[in-house]
Sequence to fold (289 residues):
Amino acid sequence: MAIAAEAVAEATFVEHSRGFRSRWYRTPSFVTGVSILGLIVLAAILAPVIAMHNPTDQDLLHTLAGPSWSHLLGTDDLGRDVWARLVYGARTDLQIAFLAVLFPFAIGTTIGLLSGYYGRWVDTIANWFVNVVVAFPFYVLIIALVFALGSGTRNIYIAITIVGWVSYTRIVRGEVLVAKRRDYVLAARSAGLSDPRILGRHLLPNVITQAIVFACSDIVLDILAIVTLGYLGLGVQRPRPDWGTMIADGQTYLTTHWMLSTIPGIAVVITALGLSLLADGLADLLRPE
Fold:
């Protein structure tokens, strides 16, 4: 019976994987999202090669210069190359956003898995903490936490983790509540398999897909939070380049040198668009046919 239960669980997981492999290139939103995000990630990785200038080097003799062959997007008020700061800023913001998603994803998935499977007092305690966190607006709570903890990358990770895990917990908990009543889980229980084996081998691979889809959208929220914190002076510390800091620094010259704030703002929008399309494509691909 245990072998049969594992075979059913494996078949369910394989069905999702096979559907992904056979349909990904026929899903326009997925292909478009991967293409947009891939180009941005590639530019961030190759920043030392394509930047041509150090993003922190100042040239006070050529401040607020227009686009040229030497400075593709011109220079800012301190003579720093805008293109170099843009691609290095992509590296900074994407790195922080992707890492900031991992901690809430792992914590929220684990709590949701245990809460949905065991129920009773475990579920009650988990829901109490979830309700406490969701009582506060996402961005307001993150800004308040970073303000209390102090600016810097480490405190951004802490703040996003404290706030972000609840969404994954609710998603995974809901999936587990449905999945644990299915035949393969009931058969595994009847066969005497241990709870850790049922959770890790049977439930987790078949309930985590929605959490993965949400993670792509969550990265968008994290990038916006990082940019907002940078704009308020609570995020990445100078002179390290960051899109939010670039927007804040350029707003003084918005009427005369609009590109200083507009270009990093456009970069944020394009990145968010790519991640949103990727999330929509994953949702379509991981949905059973």
The mean pLDDT is 85.
